[in-house]
Every structure is written in structure tokens, then in C-alpha cells.
Amino acid sequence: MSVPDSASTVRIPFTELSALLRGIFQRHGCSDSVAAVLAHNCASAQRDGAHSHGVFRVPGYVSTLDSGWVDGKAEPRVSDVASGLVSVDAFGGFAQPALAAARDLLLDKTRSAGVAALAIHNSHHFAALWPDVEPFAEQGLIALSVVNSMTCVVPHGARKPVFGTNPIAFAAPCEGQAPIVFDMATSAMAHGDVQLAARAGRPLPLGVGVDAAGEPTTDAQAVLEGGALLPFGDHKGSALSMMVELLAAALTGGHFSWEFDWTRHPGAKTPWTGQLLVLIDPSKTQGQRFAQRSRALLERMQEAGLSRLPGERRHHERAIASREGVALAAEALAQLREL
Ligand code: NDP
Ligand code: PYC
User: Fold this and answer.
1) In terms of residue numbers, what domain contains 61?
2) CB atoms within 10 A of CB 4
């Protein structure tokens, strides 16, 4: 499924896209509640122009569900393990329904203690991470989340892949505007974007990946077929990616990115790993002042010449989508309708 270009773009209402996706997930083995969560997540990514994790991912979800690698009907088990800690066993299902199941308890703990963490394990995350943090900042909280994925990133100074593309997402309230949100892979490029580049025959920038012989390459296909990605920012991104493995897998009880074997499930695409989410209630230290201080920082950055904030492009796309409908390629919509 391709990124829409202006020639082939169609627009449909968000609710219609969500309903279409929900039906697809149900048809391919998800319970109604899991299908609703995944559909909302995927439609939101498409709405915001987050193309590497919008409808482009649907064939991957479907082939994974059909392969039996993930349990679309798993019932997450939530455990209240400590005053500031909730643990969820996703039972081989998706991470987002596990987060949904723990949300109320996590919010109660954060509101009473000022800080709380959610450790999810035995879970599959195949999506953008910002939808997991943004809603908390809309409720006045600071949220930080990390998830590890499948081994395809060579640690800085090493020769073989160990890490996943391991994103970090952060969201914080800001007075008078949408929360400040960033969400970034710790690899030089998300795997999804390498797939999109390969599909479009676009070269990658140098420094993104290596081929099967470990040589630098700009050929996206060579990265996907036996090659590997590199961390962003050399040793610095590599250290962050290592941190994500420790927090999302070692701490939660999930698999490291290199630890699961999906070879007996042809079509499996979703990493079977773990996720950590930390919430902080800034009103406990700052009252209403945190959001004002966020605003002051942004204004200072803008006065210094900053023309674009992280998250700004998504909000721009979201505003257009709310007026005109969610954009997707005509052939992608046709493929969804077939599915
Ligand atoms: P990008 O490099 O596209 O963007 C990273 C962040 O930087 C975003 O918050 C983006 O905001 C912001 N940004 C981009 N360009 C600028 C700019 N010029 N000035 C200021 N801010 C900017 O993201 P990635 O390719 O690293 O990741 C894409 C997605 O892939 C993420 O959603 C991530 O969660 C997902 N992913 C998921 C994985 C999983 O295992 N589930 C694994 C790896 C990645 P904006 O959004 O507004 O463009
Ligand atoms: O784009 O790197 C990625 C990715 C991995 C798992 C889900 N998305």
C-alpha cells in the first residue's frame, strides 16, 4: 500500500476508514475490542500523514494474524505490582489493548503518587508510538514510552544487528496549544520508511544502512535483503537504542529484539517484545505552571528562528483531514475494501 500522491489520492472520513479497518481486523481473527483499538490507531496514523504506520501496515497485520504468530483475541492480564508500577502480560496479543486495559489503574496511580510506570510484556507493537503518549498529555500529564522491535540495527562499532528500530515517544502539555510530542526511531530510519523507499525505488541517504557484506549502501532493497540499519547519531543513538532494549524488554520481562524466532510463522511481521510507559503528573511539582513553562520554551525556540516543531506536521495533516477526509492512495483504498 503506497503513500498517496496527488494524482491518485482519495479522501474518506476518519470514521469510515476506522470502520473499514475494524472489519478487516475482525475478519482476520481479532476480537471486536482489539479490532477497535488497532483500527483507531492505524486510521489515526493515516489521518496524521504518518505513512510508515498507517494503512501501509495493514497487509503486515493481516499476514501476521493469518500466520498465527499473534493472538488477536488475547485478553491482557493487568497486575498491580507496586504503588507506582503496573505490569501487563499481553498474552501474545497486541500492546495497545494491553495499554487500554491498564489505563485507568495507571492514571489513578499517577494522580495519587505523581508518577507511575506501566510495564507491558509478551506483546506485539507494530504501530507508531505517539498515539500511546499523546492522549495522556492532553489530560495534563507528561508521558514517555519506549518499545523495542525486531533485530535489524547494528550497534555503533559492532558488525551484526542486535537492536530493533526501537522508538522513543514523549508528550508534554503546553499552554494554549496541542501537547508537545515527538516520536522517533533510534535507527537512522524507521524500517517502515526503508520499505516505502524500496517500493518507490528511492535511494536512501548514506549512513542509514549497510548491505549483506556490511558495506555502506544507499540501496533500500539491499538493506532489507540481508543488510541492516544503523543507529542515528553514531554512538549516541546506539546508546539510546540500548536503553530502549533494557527498559522495554529486560525491565518488563519482554523479549529483546534478537530473542524471538518467527521463522515458523511465514508472513509474521510484528515484533514480539515489550513496552514501557512512564507518566508524571507535573501539577504535583508545578501546579499549572508546567504548561506555561512549556509555552515559554517553545516561544523562545521560535524567536530563535525555529520554523517547525515536532508533531506540527501531523497536526497540520490532521486539520486538513478533519475538513476534507483522510488521504490515501486510491489503490490502497481498493485493496482495503478487498481485504
Ligand atoms: P521521523 O524521523 O519522521 O520524525 C521523528 C520526530 O521528529 C517526529 O516527532 C517528527 O514530527 C519530528 N520531526 C521530523 N522532522 C522534523 C523537523 N524538520 N523539525 C522538527 N521536528 C521534526 O520519525 P521516524 O521515522 O524516526 O519514526 C516514524 C515512526 O515509526 C514513529 O511513529 C515511530 O514510533 C514508528 N516506529 C515504530 C516502531 C515499533 O516498533 N512500533 C519501530 C520504529 C519506528 P512529525 O511527526 O510532526 O513529523
Ligand atoms: O518502522 O521500524 C519500524 C517498525 C518496526 C516495527 C514496527 N515498525
Assistant:
1) 1-67+311-339
2) 23
Give burial (CB, 10 Å; 0-12/13-18/19+) of 11: middle
Residue 89 CA: distances (Å) to CA of 68, 93, 274:
18, 9, 9
Length of the chain: 339
- CATH code at 58? 1.10.1530.10
Active-site positions read 52-53, 193
* Helix 14-27 × helix 58-67 angle, to 10°: 20
Please check whether residue 297 lies inside any domain of the structure: yes
Q: Report the predicted TM-score, pTM, of the whole model to 2 decimal places.
A: 0.97
pLDDT digits 0-9 by tens, 62-72: 999 999 999 99
Number of folded domains that form the chain = 2
In the prediction, which pLDDT does 38 show?
98
Residue 165 near ligand 2, beta carbon < 6 Å: yes
- Residue 132: inside a domain: yes
Closest CA to ligand 2's atom 3: 191
Q: What are the strands, taking DSSP E only, across 83-167?
A: 85-94, 115-124, 142-147
257 CA distance to ligand 1 middle (Å): 20
Q: Let me know whether 168 and 89 are in one domain.
A: yes
Q: Is residue 241 part of a domain?
A: no
- E strand spans, 104-261: 115-124, 142-147, 168-174, 177-184, 209-210, 216-217, 228-229
Residue 316, in any domain of the structure: yes
Cα 215–chain centre separation: 29
Residues of the chain falling short of pLDDT 70? 1-7
Closest CA to 299 of 164, 174, 172: 174
Cell representation of residue 1: 500500500
Taking CA atoms only, the protein residue closest to ligand 2 atom 4 is 191
Indicate whether 144 and 8 sit together in one domain: no
Q: Which residue has the cell 507535573?
A: 282
C-alpha 167: how far from chain center: 7
